[in-house]
Specification:
The complex is a heterodimer of chains A (about 100) and B (about 170).
Chain A lengths: L3 H21 L3 H25 L4 H30 L14
Helix pairs in contact in A: 1-2, 2-3
Chain B lengths: L1 H21 L3 H21 L3 H30 L7 H23 L12 H7 L1 H11 L2 H22 L4
Classes of the chains: A mainly alpha (about 100), B mainly alpha (about 170).
């Protein structure tokens, strides 16, 4: 029988993998994908709590998080495209000037 | 039986997540991320949330992943050069990652479920229907976040068009 703790530990593992991905990889697109992984881990925790506490607020919050994540990905990718279209390199460590 | 299904999809999600972080080619990472999304959707169905599972597949695997692939293809020749972190940074990041996962797993694995429960037991949910119940909540208790989310989408659309437009 799966308990709440099973899903929470899985959520923790996915979140940690996403964190390590943001810290280790220097390609901005893969960093962004790791952030999406962290968001999905949080979504899993929300839905698990919603099921084990017999409360549907978690599912509604996940619905809103999905929408916010979509908007965030669109804006973030537009920023990456605008930033790395004017520069020759795609190294996040070199993108340190506010005005291109 | 439920435990077996959980372990199958949990293992798939973890392996695909490691693939996202570890694979060199960004296209392979994006496809591995799609596998994570689908595995999580299967887990949502296991958690009596079929509407959220369908929304997850549609929004994440159907829209966000396509957007990622577009940008990867657009920027691909430039993203191949000059990607190297310091070796010590990688080992420190792995160390902190292991510390984080051990700490989180220990705390969350021994967590005790809160006492107060709500009204939506799985039997009740099977009778009412998950989509109808989430929709009813979304338009009554959560009306303000819903409207703010639609405003956020409008702002995101305007921002993306302004950011991605070519100058001149």
């Amino acid at each position: 029988m799966t308990t709440l703790n099973h899903f929470l530990v899985l959520s923790a593992i996915l979140f940690s993998i996403g964190t390590v991905g943001v810290l280790v990889r220097r390609n901005p697109l893969i960093m962004f994908m790791s952030i999406e992984l962290m968001l999905n881990a949080a979504n899993l925790a929300f839905v698990a709590f919603s099921r084990y506490l017999f409360n549907l607020d978690g599912q509604v919050i996940v619905f809103i998080v999905l929408t916010v994540a979509a908007a965030e990905v669109a804006v973030g990718l537009a920023i990456i495209v605008a930033l790395f279209r004017t520069r020759a390199t795609v190294n996040v460590d070199e993108a340190n000037a506010l005005k291109g | 039986m439920e435990l077996a299904i959980f372990y199958v999809f949990a293992l798939g999600a973890v392996i695909a997540a490691i693939g996202v972080v570890a694979l060199k080619n960004p296209v392979y990472s994006a496809l591995s991320l799609a596998a994570v999304f689908v595995a999580l959707a299967a887990l949502y169905v296991l958690l009596n949330a079929p509407f959220i599972a369908a929304a997850q597949v549609m929004i994440y695997a159907g829209a966000i992943l396509i957007l990622f692939l577009f940008v990867i293809m657009l920027l691909s020749p430039e993203t191949e050069r000059g990607i190297g972190a310091l070796p010590r940074q990688r080992w420190l990041a792995a160390l902190f990652g292991i510390a984080l996962v051990v700490e989180l797993a220990v705390v969350l694995g021994s967590a005790v479920l809160p006492v107060s429960r709500g009204p939506f037991t799985p039997e009740q949910l099977a009778r009412v229907g998950d989509t109808e119940a989430v929709g009813a909540l979304l338009f009554t208790d959560f009306l303000l976040p819903f409207e703010i989310t639609s405003l956020l989408l409008l702002v995101a659309m305007v921002g993306v068009i302004v950011l991605a437009k070519r100058r001149g």
